[in-house]
Amino acid sequence: MAYNDLRDWIAALERAGELRQVKTEVDPILEIAEITDRISKVSGPALLFQNVKGHPGQQVLINQFGSARRMKLALEVDSLDDIADRIRHFMDVKSPQGLLDKVKMLPMLAEMGKFFPKTVSTGACKEVIRKDNFSLNWFPILQCWPKDAGRFITLPCVITRDPKTGKRNVGCYRMQVYEERATGMHWQRQKIGAEHYREALRNASIDASLRNSSGAQQSASTRVDVMARTSGGSVLIKGDQPSGKMEVAVALGTDPAVTFSSIVPAPPDVEEYLIAGFLRQKPVELVRCETVDLEVPASSEIVLEGHVHLDELRAEGPFGDHTGFYSLEDLYPVFHVSCITHRKDPIYSTTIVGKPPMEDAYMGKAVERIFLPLMKLTIPELVDINLPIEGIFHNLMLVSIRKSYPGQARKVMNAIWALGQAMFTKCIIVVDEDVNVQDLGEVTLKVLNHIDPERDIQFMFGPIDSLDHASRLPNYGSKMGIDATRKWASEGFNRPWPDEILMDSKTKALVDGKWKALAKELGLG
Q1: According to CATH, where is 3.40.1670.10 located in the chain?
Q2: What is the largest CA-CA distance in the chain?
Q3: What letter would DSSP give residue 175?
Q4: Any idea what DSSP says for residue 124?
Q5: 371-491, superfamily in CATH?
Q6: Per-residue pLDDT reduced to its tens digit, 136-190
Q7: Each residue's pLDDT tens digit, 370-396
Q8: Is position 321 annotated as part of the catalytic site?
Q9: Active-site residue (options: 5, 207, 255, 321)
């Protein structure tokens, strides 16, 4: 059965021996992060801090997804491939050719119907409703690293609605706490929340009023680039200032499927609430907010309601990021909180990011496994992929393919760079299907033996992750692809390709039969 809420999930972690309750007093400023970092580096347990300095009676949950075992426990599977298989099962459905085929599809359609979210009249997140006299300072929000600009909400489910289509989005965007009722909203420009913001700007008809010094029209996004070179407090966009606001809700402390769904690269037009329902095999129950026209998970521990003003940007950062470096100060929209609802004695759920391995590494590996079938829809020759943790997911992708025509490796590179969030991949290495991309030693051996650097490495320009500090321009730079497949004559390679060194099966079987005695004699146990 699906976890009903965060507390149900915490109880499951405790039953599985995957949770430690910490009763020693700890400070949310740096100290919790340092403790968690040490635990993360040894694949330690989830932590529930119960004596947080300055916040008597409050609890902080962290590192809940911080191991491969906990990630599977969170999604209630024995293997992440189980979810991939379920996705593959739905994708294998063929268009019905007749009445009998349509009848056969009914059970599957009924099963899919179980995943859609449903709105309920109220929920636990409404136990306390505060429209006045509230402060974000009530909650034990962490400062994670010494040079961070302040305290950051790091594991929020940020809910927005597309002004054009009405489609909801749930994204995970960090939020720097500025004041008691204001935070930054760090939705990078390629994220769906940022697109909703841009659409709201378009609706406010400000593009025509944002012009450069020559009088040519300048888009809102370009204006942000220019303004990003400034610093200081809030900045109003000059010109015909839009007076509009964009409604936003933020759910903190959701059940693990909802939290995980907020970070997945969802296919276009598929709501994260539906993905969460698919993962938990049970619909997500939603309640309407008090002051904005949005729905949030009913069982959330804390809900922040408010608006992003369309005419306001503010310096956000630095922030110690998952790259292992600080992402630098930049300008982002400001979220103004108009209402807070929460459970009685809410549990504050959070995470820290930094040099891997950390909690987000296991979440990223889960995305890799679960969404491989969707990648294969577009790139059917894919066999497997590996996003090494040390590559922080957007820096390196290892890909194995079934090669059947010349130049296919380069076709695959370009297909990946055209595929949603995979467009940010800085380096793609393509190998043949007999190379195990999960074995970095084997990949290193085969790649470095197989390539002629001038022939097999290609460069291209395109969008780059906003967190990439090495690119020549913010959000734009170069990428590299390496074709490490065996080269064919039809690709201009006319030399013989040598055989790989492998022992024959007869000798292997002979030694296998003697190995137990040999191992004992050789002191191998």
Answers
A1: 371-491
A2: 85
A3: E
A4: G
A5: UbiD C-terminal domain-like (3.40.1670.10)
A6: 999 999 999 999 999 999 999 999 999 888 899 999 999 999 999 999 999 987 7
A7: 889 889 988 999 999 999 999 888 899
A8: yes
A9: 321
